[in-house]
What we know:
The structure is a homodimer of 240-residue chains.
Chain A: H1 2-11, H2 20-28, E1 31-35, E2 40-42, E3 50-64, E4 70-76, E5 81-82, E6 96-109, H3 110-119, H4 121-147, H5 150-161, E7 170-173, H6 178-184, H7 189-203, E8 206-208, E9 211-214, H8 217-225
Antiparallel strand pairs in A: 1-6, 2-6, 3-4, 3-5, 3-6, 7-9, 8-9
Helix pairs in contact in A: 1-2, 3-4, 5-7, 5-8, 6-7
Chain A binds a DNA duplex (30 and 30 nucleotides) through α7.
Amino acid sequence: xxxxxxxxxxxxxxxxxxxxxxxxxxxxxxxxxxxxxxxxxxxxxxxxxxxxxxxxxxxxxxxxxxxxxxxxxxxxxxxxxxxxxxxxxxxxxxxxxxxxxxxxxxxxxxxxxxxxxxxxxxxxxxxxxxxxxxxxxxxxxxxxxxxxxxxxxxxxxxxxxxxxxxxxxxxxxxxxxxxxxxxxxxxxxxxxxxxxxxxxxxxxxxxxxxxxxxxxxxxxxxxxxxxxxxxxxxxxxxxx
Amino acid sequence: xxxxxxxxxxxxxxxxxxxxxxxxxxxxxxxxxxxxxxxxxxxxxxxxxxxxxxxxxxxxxxxxxxxxxxxxxxxxxxxxxxxxxxxxxxxxxxxxxxxxxxxxxxxxxxxxxxxxxxxxxxxxxxxxxxxxxxxxxxxxxxxxxxxxxxxxxxxxxxxxxxxxxxxxxxxxxxxxxxxxxxxxxxxxxxxxxxxxxxxxxxxxxxxxxxxxxxxxxxxxxxxxxxxxxxxxxxxxxxxx
DNA sequence: CGAGGGTTTGAAGTGCATCAAATAGTGTGG
DNA sequence: CCACACTATTTGATGCACTTCAAACCCTCG
Lengths: 240, 240
């Protein structure tokens, strides 16, 4: 069991480059759990005990405003880490987390994280790198929301889902339902539907349910990225 | 000279809590320069040599899209640090920096920064804390852009300019010209002007040029923060 | 006084949200 | 395998917020 967790942790960018001893230390205090769709892992403002690494499934991070609106912070899947920043927030979770597709999730006590940061220089540096990567992503996100319109945001999202390897074609499967994609991109489901239609007309992609076929990635990229400061393939903005 | 820089560095949150030896090491390789309005400090994509700490004046960080639009990343003043993240970006500046109000700026070679991170555990931890604070700010920023309308965003901006100390009244001076405030808040100058008008009607603030008088902070806060997940005074979201 | 920037105002257009309703899709029990 | 219930998605109609383009205004400074 512990060994499985060890191997798995190594796959996450968050822990990449760490020595085996560190990974092992963390695995021994780690727990793996299954959760079904809809499970609320924690609520913003709650006292934080652990942070999490996703092994499978999807998790939505969000906040709610005083008058009931919801802002989706992020939607994460395998190898992503969340809840770790609460150690800088007085051990309070800064957002809520809900399982949106059945998930297997590893939890590790925050005390173990603090311990590594305090006593393990390599760990602190690794976390710094990871934090910086995320920070860069957020800057991109702000830019996208400011400068791209709905069809362009969808196009950009699709591009990031493609495996860069392909020549000029690609087939993409939406990772979760369209309503969720819409919220991830900061728009209404209706807007998403219509914007996808416009994107289709503008770039010749083919939409069949949750599957999307792209003939000319070039064309999609030109349409979406003209309003963005970084050109496709959006540099190295891979996830945590 | 070096001593002046030392004292100054200590004031920045970025260096807070560091021991004198560290501060001293950094000061010896630091340089202070004066810049006039309009000076372009560096351009996105350029090879990064140094990072910067502002002693006085204002600096705008921004990026430009392929079709010429500009996205303002941030507008910074005294004690703020910028350009430091390029060490995680292959020594490339991820944005451009322009002086928008005559400024005194300290520059420190990135090599010195890397050196501290590699060899000084306390420094790495301090930077982690600073990074986390900034990350949190960005999350707030995304939320504001998504959920608040123009008048609310202005209200929120004003609230963050007030010294929390005051009872229920405050007088605020806009830190830079209104066009810049508008871009900082992600709106057009015309929209800013009109939205400020609406905010005036809705909350009873008084606008006299660049000076704004608030009688009931309560009222302003209620108007602006209802669409936001964190209540005024926006927790501890003070700057770097 | 006059030039030039910043700021405001007006009019018109665009994009997204909202509300309402139709349609497609999925899983259930018979 | 079908009918039903329920949800996801699409489509239509309308409204509001912000942008855009244009022009007026204001203020400062030579």
